[in-house]
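fyi for ur records
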Amino acid sequence: MKDSKRSLELWAFLVPALLILVVFYFLPTILTIFISFTPLRNWNIDRYARIFAGWRNYYRLFYAIQNDPSVRAVFLTTAVFVPVTLAINVLGGLALALINFFVGKRSNALINTIWLLPRMTPIAVYSLVWYYFFHGSEIGTLNSILIKLGIIHRAVSWGQEFLPYGAWSVIIFVNGLVGVSFGMIVLSSAVKSIPTEHIIAARVDGATDWQLCRRILIPQIRWHIMYVATWQLLSLLTSYAHTYLLVSWRLVDKSYGTPWALYVYELAFTGVFDQGLAAASGVFLVIVGAILGWLTLKILGFNKLVTEPRGDL
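which gave:
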């Protein structure tokens, strides 16, 4: 009787989460795979949805990667944007979490509020702030400051010049700040959950701040670091909202300011309206995301973390 009641309680917690996964993740993935094998265009479902195109869309995709300079630029942008922004998000979030641990509570609250602003601000408003900051004329905040300081003598279009590094720098900076705030929230909570006895014992033994971080704090929040790294990796692979606005407003060069997720969106919803090719590109992104997610867990030692301890605790 107890086992049956326990089982019902477990399913009561699991079913809502499973329904969300099925409705919002698995079913869209299956539908995307199906569309990738059709020549669907212009959302003309009646005409194209029942036609089987085989691997045609995948052949077109890999041919474009090999021969189309604009698609190669998108591929290269993704290969730079994702790992660099991921490093900023994880290391920046960890640094802020450790700073929060060592500073006073008043300063702690101020730092948290400042870094949470990017995540609390609506996407359009947040992107507009950086649009005017990096604007390529003298009204741009960055240009105005640098001209007044005598560092530059003319306005610079930061996202359109110095390609590809200018465009990459802008989209990495804008997206990096949002991710850093997420990492800070998770890792700060993790650090605060460490038993104070461990901290006191380390201090009694004469541990410096650096030794405390390296020997006590960071090892005990490995789970949270792994979670932040994996989550942010998958999020960066599929995010496009901020970059879409920056590209649409012509703040950054379209070729080198478009990561793969935005490329998929544009194929399906703007310009050519080629949903078959967009679906194939989306399936390719899902496969790459699954492989990279697995590698991230492997590198960060997921298997070691889930093994049972060797002794009694």
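The chain has a mean pLDDT of 87. thats all i got for now
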